[in-house]
Amino acid sequence: MSKKLFLLPLLFLLIFSCQKDTFTLSQIVNQLDRIRAQNDSLYNEVRSLQRRVDSLNSRVTSSNQALTLMMGKIDSINNRLMQVANRVTELSAQLAGVNANTTQILEELNKLKAEHSLIISLLNDLIRQSANFYNGLIAYYPFSGNANEVIRGGVGNGVVSFASLDTGFSGKQNESYRFSGMSDAVIKTGRVIRDVSNTFTYVFKVNATDTLNIIPFEGLWNDAFRQLQLLAPVHGENFGNPSENAGVGVSLGQNGLVVEDHSHLYRSVLLSYRGKIEGWNYIVVVIDNKVPKLYINGSLIKSGISPSRTLWPSCGRDNTFDHSNSGIGLGNSNGTNTNGVRRFKGLIDEFMIYNRALAESEIKLFFSRL
């Protein structure tokens, strides 16, 4: 972002250094010129931010709610700046009149000063938002017409099997993938993330259409019990000693959600939530120093337990035979169709992984229902 932004408060302090009754016509003209110059500077900053967000938008998808919201706010600031510019022109014309009311014009100048102060605040907030949204984002699958990953230039693009493009959250066609519960339906990324552990964040925009047999407790459970895995947990041996490492997965139904970790002959529930999750929802699972937290549409729902093992994000799998059925990707459960295994049913619109724990304020800002 341009260094000019940091000069804006200094420009702001130059306005109105004299008392109202000591202003001459020339001084008022100077104040109008300064406001006009500040308005032009602000407009340039807004245009710079708009180009940044446009560039991000072109790399991902126009259906992303966070970017759409930012674009709307940028348009609002542009409209405010245009109104200020028009008012400055009107006041300049009034000063050219024979009977210019300098007292009234000074009052209008005070209003313009207050408006610029508000615009500066709004602009700074937007700059922070545009930076924070992509801070630490290491995997992003918007599922707009394909399963490509858009942050790393195609590294880890998804390979789709038996999942079909469908209508997304925005109502547009080909903006999500539908999983019908078929045993072979999956989006494989072929990517194992080995540079992030114990602290990371999953974000899903998802619409589940089946119900989950909720595991009512947190802790060790039956390794053979696998169902409705939105994201299959990668095998812990991909990251070293299988008794010390585990991948984190998420199972989801219309009636609840389970966060689990998995390794060789090991599976445990880190968080179990029973509650209605119907229709489209933003599901955010934060792993913060091994402690899982569940957010739905921006609201903190529940925190889970911390395991002894090192936790790793699941995105793909290792290519070794031993792990060929483990952590295979999105929308499928590892293992075979035995022992009560059921596959995920529903639609996935977006999937993201951050290499940090998103703050609650960020989750409310970016991943609440709009």
Describe this structure in words.
The chain has 370 residues and is an alpha+beta fold. It folds into 2 domains: 3-134; 137-366, Jelly Rolls. The protein is 30% helix and 25% strand. It is built from 5 helices and 16 strands. It has helices spanning 8-13, 25-59, 65-95, 102-134, 360-366; strands at 137-141, 159-161, 164-166, 176-180, 186-188, 200-208, 219-220, 229-231, 245-253, 256-263, 266-274, 281-288, 291-296, 299-303, 310-313, 345-354. Strands 1, 3, 4, 6, 12, 13, 14 and 16 form an 8-stranded antiparallel beta sheet that branches. Strand 13 and strand 14 form a beta hairpin. Helix 2 (25-59) packs parallel to helix 4 and helix 3 packs antiparallel against helix 4. The two termini are 27 Å apart. The model is unreliable at 1-22 and 320-327 (pLDDT under 50).
Q: Kindly estimate the percentage of residues that lie in beta strands according to DSSP.
A: 15-25%
Please give the CATH class of the largest domain: Mainly Beta
At the fold tier of CATH, the topology name of the largest domain is: Jelly Rolls
Please give the count of helices.
5
What global shape is seen? elongated
What is Rg?
Answer: 27 Å
Q: Structural class of the secondary elements?
A: alpha+beta
For the residues shown, what is the average pLDDT? 78
Q: Estimate the helix proportion, in percent.
A: 25-40%
CATH architecture of the largest domain: Sandwich
List keywords for this structure.
Jelly Rolls; elongated; eight-stranded antiparallel sheet; 370 residues; 2 domains; disordered N terminus; alpha+beta; six-stranded mixed sheet
